[in-house]
Amino acid sequence: MGPGLLGSFGGKSCATDVLRNRPVIFVHGIMFRAGNWMLNYYHFLLNGYTSAELYATTWGDGGATLLCQKTFTCEDVKQVRQFIIAVNEYTGTQVDVIGFSGGVAISRKAILGGCCVDTGEALGDPLTESINTYVAVAGVAYGMESCLDQEAGNLINGVNCNSAYMRDVNFPPHRYEGTYSYFIYSESDEIIRKNCCGHLCPELKNALAFKCEKYMLHPSIIVLTEDVQLKMVQHRFGI
């Protein structure tokens, strides 16, 4: 899904590489690709990580489908779930997951498991024990206000806060995304916006803490909060 690091990245240079940090999996949003994480990738490299500790793959069609036409399909969920499992097994350790925008909705269902709401296909048990820290950045967590009158706003696997998909990922009363979880959002987000069934749309249920920005727009928050993301996965946020 694009050349080089645009379509995917991550992996050891040689079998003897030693991991000094928990591996981080980046999950992009709708109409994005793995390569949209490149500035974050280099920020983490400059702060002591190696390519063996930073991973991303492109799920979906890499942005070919317009934002308001893209739904959260079982195929997308399976792809991200399999990637998390593969990185966990490859590195032999717990991983951290940072999701952005629609990648939050996809990765949460990938971790939760259960059955797909659109096909009924069984995914398996939760991956909670494989994940140390989960960070949602400008996430479709309770849904989003945009696109509700189009295909993406359908009540099965759409962004509508009342869709079966959004109800499913927000049903568990406990934190399942990892041992620790955080979210980052902006009050000026023009895509996700704010009001979803009595919650902030980007509010991650049961999160330990959050960071609120006032003036960041949706496409830029992924890069402008890269240091906050780093601190969250390193358990340094708020210190």
Task: Describe the structure in your own words.
This is Triacylglycerol lipase. The protein is of the alpha/beta class and 239 residues long. It has one domain: 3-Layer(aba) Sandwich (Rossmann fold). Helix content is 25%, strand content 18%. Helix 2 crosses helix 3.
The domain tally reads: 1
| Unreliably modeled segments | none
Distance between the termini: 39 Å
Q: Mean pLDDT, rounded to whole units? A: 96
CATH superfamily grouping = Alpha/Beta hydrolase fold, catalytic domain
- How large a portion of the residues is in β-strands, by DSSP E? 15-25%
Q: What's a concise summary of this model?
A:
This protein is α/β, with parallel strands linked by helices and 239 residues long. The protein has helices at residues 38-46, 74-91, 102-112, 164-169, 218-224, 226-233; strands spanning 8-9, 24-27, 54-57, 95-100, 114-115, 122-124, 131-137, 180-186, 195-196, 199-200, 209-213.
List the helices and strands and how they pair.
Elements: E1 8-9, E2 24-27, H1 38-46, E3 54-57, H2 74-91, E4 95-100, H3 102-112, E5 114-115, E6 122-124, E7 131-137, H4 164-169, E8 180-186, E9 195-196, E10 199-200, E11 209-213, H5 218-224, H6 226-233
Parallel strand pairs: 2-3, 2-4, 4-7, 7-8, 8-11
Antiparallel strand pairs: 1-3, 5-6, 9-10
Helix pairs in contact: 2-3
Organism: Panagrolaimus sp. PS1159
Protein name: Triacylglycerol lipase
Identify the notable features of this structure and list them briefly:
two-stranded antiparallel ribbon, Rossmann fold, seven-stranded mixed sheet, 239 residues, alpha/beta, single chain
